[in-house]
Amino acid sequence: MAFYGVELASRLLLGTARYPSPKILADAIQASGAEVVTVSLRRESGPERSGQSFWALVRSMGVRVLPNTAGCHTVKEAVTTAHMARELFDTPWIKLEVIRDDETLQPDVFGLVEAARILGEDGFEVFPYTTEDLSVADRLVEAGCRVLMPWGAPIGSARGLNNVYGLKALRAHFPDIPLVVDAGLGVPSHAAAAMELGYDAVLLNTAVAEAGDPVAMAKAFAIAIEAGRMAFKAQPMEPRDMAVPSTPTIGRAALGD
Amino acid sequence: MRIYVNGDQREIQVGTLAGALETLGYGGRKIATAVNGRFVAAAARPTTTLSEGDKIEVVAPMQGG
User: Fold this and answer.
1) What is the pTM assigned to this prediction?
2) ipTM value greater than 0.85
3) N or C, fewer C-beta in 10 Å, chain B?
4) What is the C-alpha to C-alpha distance for residues A89 and A83, in angstroms, rounded to an integer?
């Protein structure tokens, strides 16, 4: 699997927020096997240096970072944030979020497409956080995106895949674009389900960070993602409405009256 | 000169962004900056002149999903 030419072995991208402690974050990253972690930018004021120590920790992990534009509500905010992230993290990668609705954190897909085009023309490699809408996905690809990241469910909701039909259609329409289910997963079976649909990877944060044991949960997700991918490649059978006996009926002993 | 840094009002004497950041204790830190909503690259900070009322944003790496 490759994102913008970068080959990756792990199909789990892990967020770095909401962990009980920096130590647990570090252990969870390690347990997950993730090679890419998401990071963000926030104001740093006064004598506090929380951002500096966080950065030192991420660097010590030897993972690639995918900065986000979380919290941006306008194209201008998202583009400016992307520029700051590119300089700060020294990467052209940007997880582009332009949010419209604060209740659902649903992407503003119109702003998303516009920001993706602006950033793409400026040399960014955009990972758009989007919905499963096919037309929007098409516009994002037109704008230069070579990865698409549809939501499974609203961020932090732990609901799993809300629209399996839509996600399947997206996979079918874009067989050659890496697709990542980003957000809304709660348990490893959700991640396995995404991988069984043929998705290339999943991005998650809260499901690991807010588990009772984030390190164990990181490992559980890693195993589920691997199992789901293996199952997809093994070509699952199609569901059907009627029962079909798995045990052969020919040669059955006649024991009735 | 009165400016705003991350929303807080500050009084500074120096006229460039680089000077202001040094005065405010950001020297040597891993940060990125914007002035009045526009990104200012690190290389441009010494030549970016501040004006009364400018709004400066100073951001650092932070946890994110």
Assistant:
1) 0.94
2) yes
3) N
4) 10
